[in-house]
Amino acid sequence: MASKAAATLLRRGGKHFFTRYWAAKTKSSPAASFAPSLSSFVPNPAGTGAKSYLGSSRLMSSDVTNGRFMAYSMLYHDSVAFLVSNQLGIPVFMASEPKTPADVAKEFNLSVRAASALLVTLCRMDVVQVVKDSDDSVDDIVYGLTPSAQTFLSNRKDLACVSPFVDTFTTNFITPEALLECSLPADEKKDIMSEHLEQDDETVANNARHFMAHMNAQSYCCAKALPKALGLDSVNEPKTLLDVGGGSAIYSIEAIQSNPNMNGIVFELPAIKPITEEYIEKAGLSDRVSVSPGDFFNDPLPAADYVLFSNIFHDWPDSINANLIQKAYDCLNPGGKIVISEILLADDVKSSTPAATSMNVIMLPYTKGRQYRPKELFRRLQKVGFTKPQVINLVDDYDLVVGTKA
Ligand SMILES: C[S@@+](CC[C@H](N)C(=O)[O-])C[C@H]1O[C@@H](n2cnc3c(N)ncnc32)[C@H](O)[C@@H]1O
Which residues belong to any copy of the O-methyltransferase dimerisation domain (predicted)? Predict the structure, then answer.
């Protein structure tokens, strides 16, 4: 069953959901009740310093007025404007030279008012910047792409392009009705695995390929940051990174490229192995990154010095993750490290970043999991014997939770 697994477009109640479900025979373990002292843990709040790109001092300014509640009601439309702009290809169109709202309107057959509204939102988001201002209407401003939009939004052929991730939310936007539907108690019991396996092999394969591109875009900057964050770039003897559910192999590729002492193994479902191998081949690293086919619920993991779970734990409930942590402990060499990469909720909940709370909601229709807090993962790690648990900021809203096998 596991070998047939893949992500899929799932039609539910007229809405498409791009599921992250991968068929697997799961076995759960009893929920942990172990509660170690947290006093030795590094008290880094999750996502520290990662909020500024969304921050607005006005939004947070007052407890005695209603402004922020109105703002939260409306911010959804900013996201829609961003998604639609990217779907139309506005950043690609603006890559070569600055444009006015009239230029954008003409290119995409929009009204100037609509093009201008999209550009104003993109300007607030640092996708575009004002190149030539107008003292009169905002409709007359000349905008150019910002350097980061040039890098991450302007060239769909570039591996750095984040658009495969953005596109997923354009085609699978969670409407209020869809959120309510997947929040029903009955939805928790639904066997989504069986539903998506009912599709033909070609659909399953296409969806898997699409999902790998989505994950590759999501993990691009994290993977670039991993070697330094973990010190993989400076290990001075041969070490192996095992990337469990490693998808596009992007973490292994970056780790290996950072240091000749590093080797990589991607543990992936047999059905996904050929797609993973394509990414490795494109990077020219087939001799140093291998793909070990298997099902992480039913098969043992290969021996390694670092075991990485990136965006895996938030797909599954706590009890299943406890099994994965035990498997990691069993396969690690002495002194080895488990590395969990996730957008974490903050320990106090309140300090969670908007990306963390959004991802937590996104998990409702797509998975059986949620975002976790450092302290809950610390407890899990300690329960199986990992020591020195710590949180290391990886990039933006992503953190690593790391534990060491004594
Ligand atoms: C959310 S993606 C994460 C991909 C990658 N780690 C990243 O962060 O870019 C989940 C990955 O886990 C893999 N996966 C799901 N169930 C699995 C299983 N039972 N055994 C092995 N891999 C599995 C999927 O094929 C998919 O590539």
Answer: 75-154
